[in-house]
Write a structure and sequence with these properties.
By secondary structure, this protein is of the alpha/beta class. Helix content is about 40%, strand content about 15%. It has 8 helices and 10 strands. The longest helix has 23 residues, at about 220-245.
């Protein structure tokens, strides 16, 4: 069973979906701790040749998990992000496809009686996008898998929990983002238990309608869909997963 694990991030970039495509089972690590320096609550889009951030305002508490993190005045923020994306992508060739993501967000926020946590919102967006991209990977959440930390060595907390989740997923091959390589190898646990492949890649260039300079990569999936449409974006993600650079 090929598995991958990532923390749920806000409107993630194409590489996130390429990692999902590689796996048979993908786990959202929604019990991970929220970090202000992360992509958990923000991402980047292209605004008239300039890369800009769109961010959610978070009610942050010390040692708070993603599935406990609340978003401040979510409806106003989603409306603001909707207007921003509409302003800068309205003339994109596949704007209507990209705007489906925002329409889904609006529907989710305004029709729900209780506001979702940051993890829940991100997972719902990513799941919706996966369906539109025709990715067939099974998606699960770490919060659905009970963890007994009593038997996890304190020096191997991150790898110990990860190994527990991978065992629960019946993992035989683990695809890890390159950023986790240092701590995984330092803990010396995951590689002993699972065939581990570290994945890294450079985004493939595509035409960006509003960008007259060099290609701007690592943007939100919004940019990919607005410029390519769902069908070509799906192929773009699948090609990326095939061409991904494996580092062992």
């Amino acid at each position: 069973m090929r598995c991958a694990v990532m923390q749920p991030t806000y409107l993630p970039w194409a590489g996130y979906f390429a990692l999902i495509e590689l796996a048979d089972v993908f786990m959202f690590y929604d019990t991970a701790q929220f970090s202000k320096s992360s992509w958990h609550y923000r991402n980047r889009i292209l605004c008239q040749n300039e890369v800009k951030w769109i961010s959610l305002n978070i009610q942050h508490k010390h040692e708070q998990c993603l599935n406990e993190t609340k978003i401040l005045v979510l409806n106003k923020q989603i409306k603001k992000h909707s207007n921003t994306i509409k302003t800068y992508y309205a003339k994109a060739p596949y704007f209507n496809d990209a705007y489906e993501i925002i329409l889904y967000l609006n529907k989710r926020v305004f029709e729900c009686e209780t506001e979702p946590t940051l993890a829940a919102l991100n997972i719902e967006i990513i799941t919706f996008i996966c369906e539109k991209l025709m990715l067939k990977t099974k998606l699960i959440r770490s919060s659905s898998i009970p963890v007994n930390t009593d038997n996890i060595n304190i020096l191997e907390q991150r790898s110990g929990k990860l190994s527990h989740y991978l065992k629960a997923m019946k993992c035989t091959e683990y695809f890890s983002p390159i950023g986790a390589k240092e701590y995984i190898q330092k803990d010396n646990l995951i590689e002993r238990l699972f065939h581990t492949t570290y994945c890294d890649f450079t985004p493939q260039k595509y035409n960006q309608f509003s960008h007259n300079e060099s290609f701007a990569g690592y943007l939100s999936i919004i940019d990919v869909v607005a410029n390519l449409g769902w069908e070509k974006a799906s192929q773009y993600i699948k090609d990326m997963s095939c061409q991904i650079k494996h580092i062992n």
